[in-house]
Amino acid sequence: MGFKTVQLSNNNAVTGLYSSYLINIAADGTFEVALPLTREQEVWVGFPFFNSPIYLEPGKELIQNFDITSPSAVTSVFKGVPATVNNDINKVRPILMDFDWDAIDKAIYSMTPEQYKLYFQQIQQRKLSQIDSIAKKGAFNKTAYDLAQRNVKYSTADLLIFYRHMMESAYRHVNKLSFDNKQPLSKPVKPDSSYYSFLKELKYNDPLALRSYNYFILINRLMYMEPVYDQARTEGADYEKELAILKTKDTSDLGIKNTINHYEEMIARNATIPGALERARPVVFKKLLPVSSSMETDIVYLQSITREMDINKDTLSAEKLATIKSNVKNPFLLADVYTLDNTIKESIRNAKTQKGYSYNQLAATTANDSMLTTILEKYKGKVIFIDFWATWCGPCMDAIKRIAPLKEELAGDKNIVFLYITNTSSPEKSYDVIMPGIKGEHYRLSTDQFNQLSGMFNIVGIPHYAIVDKRGTIINKNFIWTQNDQVKEQLLRLEKE
Question: Which of 295, 353, 456, 496 sits a CA distance of 20 to 30 A from 337?
Answer without folding.
Answer: 353
